[in-house]
Design goal:
alpha+beta, PspAB-like, six-stranded antiparallel sheet
C-alpha cells in the first residue's frame, strides 16, 4: 500500500481467514447461555456462480462431497439477485459438522480460484420464542455480524446488538454497522 492510498483513505483488503468459521461452535454455546438461541442445524454459503465448465464441475464436486455421508443434505438455489446459495442441513446438535461443511465449501471454492465469487456464509439459530437469527460471515471482510429478521422485512436491531455483546469475544465482529447487510430469505435462516 502506497502513500497515495493512505492519503485517499484506501485500505488493503483483509485476507479472509476461513478458520474463523470454526469459532461458531464456541459462539453457539455462549449465545445459548446468554440469550437462549439454539442452532437450527441449517447453514448456507452464498456466492456468485461463474460461467463455464470448471465452475460447474467444482459446484458438482462440492455437492457430491457434502451429500456423500447419509443421503442428500445439500440444496442449491438462486436468489432474486442472481446469487447462488448452497444450503447444508444437519441435526441441530451437529453444529460442528455443519461448520465443517461450510468451511469445506468455502475452501473448495477458494482453492479452485473462485474465492472472489464468495459473498458470505451463515449459520441459523432459533430463540425460545421462535425468533430467527443468523450469524453471518462476510468472506471479503473476514468478520461476522448477526442478522435478526422480523416479519415485514424488518430487523430486530436491539437483538442484533445484544448478540454482538454476547458473542463478540468469541468471533471477530464487523465494526462497521453499515456492513451488517440484510440477507432476506436466505436459505438456512
Amino acid at each position: 500500500m502506497g502513500f497515495l492510498d493512505t492519503l485517499l483513505g484506501r485500505s488493503k483488503p483483509v485476507k479472509p481467514d476461513l478458520d474463523q468459521l470454526f469459532g461458531l461452535s464456541t459462539a453457539a454455546i455462549t449465545l445459548e447461555a446468554a440469550t437462549g438461541f439454539k442452532p437450527t442445524g441449517l447453514g448456507s454459503v452464498c456466492f456468485r456462480a461463474a460461467e463455464g465448465g470448471a465452475f460447474a464441475r467444482l459446484q458438482a464436486d462440492v455437492q457430491e462431497l457434502l451429500d456423500a455421508d447419509e443421503g442428500p443434505k445439500v440444496e442449491i438455489s438462486t436468489d432474486s439477485y442472481g446469487y447462488t446459495w448452497l444450503l447444508a442441513t444437519h441435526r441441530p446438535q451437529e453444529l460442528p459438522d455443519l461448520v465443517t461443511d461450510l468451511h469445506a465449501v468455502n475452501s473448495t471454492l477458494e482453492s479452485g480460484g473462485f474465492g472472489p465469487h464468495l459473498l458470505c456464509s451463515l449459520a441459523g439459530f432459533r430463540g425460545p420464542d421462535g425468533q430467527r437469527l443468523a450469524l453471518v460471515y462476510l468472506y471479503k471482510r473476514g468478520t461476522f455480524y448477526p442478522f435478526a429478521p422480523l416479519p415485514g422485512d424488518k430487523r430486530d436491531n436491539a437483538l442484533e446488538l445484544q448478540v454482538r455483546g454476547a458473542v463478540g469475544a468469541d468471533l471477530p465482529f464487523e465494526e462497521d454497522l453499515g456492513r451488517w447487510f440484510p440477507v432476506w430469505g436466505a436459505p438456512g435462516l
